[in-house]
Structures are given as C-alpha cells and as structure tokens.
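Researcher: Let's try something more involved. This one mixes different molecule types, so please make sure each is placed in the same coordinate frame as the others.
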Amino acid sequence: MPGRGSCPDCGSAELVEDSHYSQNQLVCSDCGCVVTEGVLTTTFSDEGNLREVTYSRSTGENEQVSRSEQRGLRRVRDLCRVLQLPPTFEDTAIAYYQQAYQHAGIRTARLQKKEVLVGCCVLITCRQRNWPLTMGTICTLLYADLDVFSGTYMQIVKLLGLDVPSLCLVDLVKTYCSSFKLFEASPSVPAKYVEDKEKMLSRTLQLVELADETWLVTGRHPLPVITAATFLAWQSLRPSDRLTCSLARFCKLANVDLPYPASSRLQELLAVLLRMAEQLAWLQVLKLDKRSVVKHIGDLLQHRHMLVRKAFRDGTAEMDPGEELQGQGQGPEEEDVGSSSLELPAVKRPASPALLLPPCMLKPPKRVCSTPPVSTVTGDEDISDSEIEQYLRTPQEVRDFQKAQAARQAAQSVPNPP
Amino acid sequence: MDRNDSLSPFDRYLASPQGAMSPGIPVFSPMMHYGTGLTPQPVQSTDGLSTLEEEQQQAKVATGQLSTMSQQATQEASDQTPPLFNSHPLMTAPLLGTTPLYPSPMTPITPMTPPMPASEITELVPQLHNIVCMVNLGCKLDLKRIALLARNAEYNPKRFVAVIMRIREPRTTALFFSSGKMVCTGGKSEEQSRLAARKYARIIQKLGFPAKFLDFKIQNMVGSCDVKFPIRLEALLLSHRQFASYEPELFPGLVYRMIKPRIVLLIFVSGKVVLTGAKVRREINEAFNNIYSILKGFRKIS
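Model: All components are placed in one shared frame. Result:
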C-alpha cells in the first residue's frame, strides 16, 4: 500500500499487507522482505473483546447449504433446545441431518417427511446416548403422525447404516416418574396424595422389573406398563387413603396423559401379584382380591424373586416326557389353575404353579385355525369352458350395463338441474 | 432355573449367530410318519407292499398335515436307506417292532432327535398363506373392454391403472395391466397359483384377446409357523444385532432379515413366526429351520 513507508532492504515503496495464516504482516512486494508483523497470539484481555460468530450465523452457510436444509438444521436446533438436551446432542443431531441430506431420496422428499426427519435425527442421537425419549413425545412436538414417523425412521436407520440401541427402560422409568406432579402439595393435589419421589421411584422400578420378568413388557409399548407400575407403587405406599383413587384420576392429578393400554396392563400386573401372593403363607389365609393385594405389594416386592420362581412354572422350558403333571401331556399352552383337581377331586391340593407365559399365549385363541386339507392340485388340470363362462357377461348384460353407464354419464353431466 | 438377579436370564440368550448363515439342511424327519398317527397293524398280510400302500393312504387322509415337501422328504429318506430295508423302511418299523437304525420309543408323539449335528431338525413345517406370481399374456389389453365384458372385474382408472379381477376357485385376485402383464395373488400353493393364473389367461382368451401364458414366475411366498414357546425378543435383538430390528413402540414383532436364504422373518413373543420374501418353498423351510435352531437356544430345558 502506498504511503506506508519503504522497504529497509530494497527501498521500494510497494508494501502490501498480507497475512501469513492468521498473523498480520507488512511485506515488500518487490523483494519479499517482511517489514512488520502482528502478534500471532492474543492476550487474555484481547480475547475478551473478540466475538466468535458460529458458522450457522455467518453468511458462509447460506452460500453452500440449500434453504430447505438450513430450515431443517434450524428445526433440529430448536427441537434440541425445547427438549433441553445437552449441547453435544445438538451437534450430533445436526451431523445426522446433514448426512441424511446427502442422499437424493431425502433431498427430493416432501416437506412433511423432512420435518419428520428432524425428529428422527434427534431421536437417534438420544437413543445412542441413552437419553430416554419416546417416539410419542417427538410426534406430539412435531404434530406428526406416528405412521409417517415410523416409515421415515426405519428408512433413515437403513440409509445411514446406523446401529440404534433400544430404549433403556430404567432411564425411561426415572424420567417419566419424575414428570408426575405428586411430590409437592398443591391446590389440586391434597396432602394425602403427595409422595416421596425416591420411594416411589424405587418401588416403580421394582414393579417394572417384575413386569419384565413375567412377560408383560416384551412386544408391548413400554410407557403404559410404566404408568400402571407408577400407579400401583403410589397406591401401595399409602393404601388406606389411596385405594379409592382410580387410574384415570391419578393421571389427571399428576398432570400426565393416560395411555389407553395402561388399564389392561394394570389388570395383568395385579393378576401376577395375586399369583405371587398365593405363595406367601400369611397372605394365603387372607383370600386377597385385586384391591386388597395392593396393601401387600411392599412384602411381595421384597421377596419377588423367590415368589415368582415358586408361583410360576417356566413356560419356555421343554416338557420332559416322563414328567408326571396332572393333565399335561402336550406343550406349555394350557392354563391349569382349575385342572389341578383332575385326578383327586376329594382331596384339596394347592393349585399347581401356573405357566409363566406372555398374556397372548394364555388367552384362548379367538378362532381355531384349522389346517387346510391336503390340496391335490397339480396346476396343469383342464379348465372347463363352463367354469370360465360363469365369469363372462352375456350380451344382454353387456347392453344393460352400457345403458346404465350412459344414464349415469348423462346424470353427472347435468349436476344441478334448475 | 435359578434366577437370582435380573441379569442372569440374559446370559443364556447368547446364542451363536451361526444358525443364520449355515447352509440349510433339507427338512428330513424320519419320525414324520410316526407323528401322523401310524399305529402298528394287528394283522399282517403276507404281501408286505400292499399293506404299506394302504397305510400310506391312511396316513395321508388321517392327518391332512403332510405337505408335498414332507412326502418328498420321506421318499428321500427311503431312498437313502435302500439296502437295509425294503422300499419303505419307516413303514415297516412299527410293524416289526424293531428299528435297527433309529432306536426310539414306540409312542408317536415324542419327537426324536436324529443324529444330525448342525442345525435343528424339526417336525414343524411352515404353512404357506399367500403366493404372488406374475405372467406375461403376450398381447396388449384393452382394459375398458375387459371391464365391460367380464362379470368379476373392476376398473377405476382414477384410482389405479389396472383391472382387478377375482375368481372363486382357487380364491385369488388378479391385476391386469394394459401392457399385457398380469399379477395373481392369493394362491395357497405353487400349483394353485399356477392353475389360477391359467384360468385368468383363459378368461382373457375368451374375451377375444390373443392371450398366451409366457414367463410364469412366482415373485413372493408368505408362510407362517408356530414354535409353541415364548421368545424374549429383547434378548434375541441383543444377540443378533446385525440381523434383527425390534422397536416395541412401533410394532410388537421383531423383524429378522436373514441373509442366507434371503428371507425376512417376523418373530412375535408368542412364538409365531411369519416368513416372507421367498421365491421357492425350499427357502421358507430352510429359513425356518435356521431360525428354529436359533430360538431353541433361548429355551431352557427343565
């Protein structure tokens, strides 16, 4: 630049300000001599005055990334902030979204799908870091259909070749239980309904573990089971005051949505607990039912491993052919609560252990699937003309059909007769 | 049977993934005939072969469970042991009361494990429920004319560009495209599917089109079976991560994508398995044998 002095080596006035990486230097353009140079490092006080601009806020991104991708990336950041995820999650989710955008199938997809893709990226990030986020939550936040979400989710997992771990049940219980508004008294929550968080959490965890062991969790949506377990845990911690409260009312008090399957999960869990109670000597005499067993859940959970072992026979185990069991000759499909008195009706014997099977295997089949008769079709049989003719219209039928069609066309062409 | 802590059941679920990749051994159960209610005849006739044929027919009628595959399998079995017995070694065994090759109890129900090392042999055979096939009729079709002249056809060009036609026997549905290609679905066996496709082609012929029957090909076969014991899907997912996908929030079943043979299986907690993606029946049977050996590994022996 002219007017800035001359080079000490060659005396030329052509000095240029040229940075060597991030170091400012004044260089002579004739001989290359470095006249002056700036400081490479900054002091602490200097750095306090610097303002870092993220790439997303600089203009650099606008030039390289398409507008719809930018919008998607913005939505990913917003979603991460709404869910209050740790900052590292945001970067991972952004990376997944950008990776997905490399594929032509995603770039040309509808806006609805791109919106759902935002949720998929956040969900995958959370799953990989064991952050318990359910698909239902994301769908509610994005106002998306679960069907659309599931299709996009399966597609993106396959496309990016990702290994997504399954939802961690323990973490989900902790997060979900903590969201119940029952830990402080309020105008809507009377004092007798308030419960200590730690006690409720530990008891809910034990109940969920029990449900998992007794085949109530496999193949089902995890959340309704946890709702039922939380309700039972809460009831059992103070049964005298809380037995009158129903599941629906409980969820309303706690300000939590009641998932539809939760009531049937509750019944299944109570049935398991009743079976376990039959094995405890001091409870056998009480003849418990679904309401009274709640008072003893604490005891049942304390000895749950032993009780489950005693109360149930393993449903997966192969039957030893020589084993003598009343009325059991086939496989592990029969419920035998009532069949224990087959041989000796006079003598009262304790009910033999029920089979530990998923509820779908214990219910009787809705319709009997008969095996089809052996088909002797070869595929090369003769086809009779009469058989084919039954599928063809007679000329009269054709004429009638054409007349009807014409009449309909005429009626349609005059939509609103005056 | 000791379950002291919640982790121990999972330790036993670490079955080897070899079952998925190992070459399938054809379904071969020498006990098939035992299991089909074959009881020793009280009166033995001197002509050994005639009673055997009678028994064969009795067995066929009595159970109705024998698929063509098992018939072939038992024939294979009899072919494999010609020198020791006459042509039906398995048939004579209950009659004579001796089973030189396979010592076993006489009760028909107990399954026997023959000395086969690799994959599990099972008397469970998957049942086919649906077959999708395609055939080229070799001529352009006027869809409007077909919809006009056929009773069992529906054609709504705004909804779908093909004519949908149904016949009652075998109960199937066909889609006719204007290019002359036809897709036939709903058949319960390969032969049924072929017969149905021929009937549809005959209908088109009678409507006045020069229809032929070219390139008949089965595109997909769907079958199902029941292993009759519950399955811990989470544990199966853990041990077979690279093949299995299980999202209980979306679908109650586990989706297992087997590589050899290339079949997709839907496995449910009740033990029911749905197999799809096969082009031939052998693939379904092979896939089921593979998955059965994997699932048996999860089962505890009491």
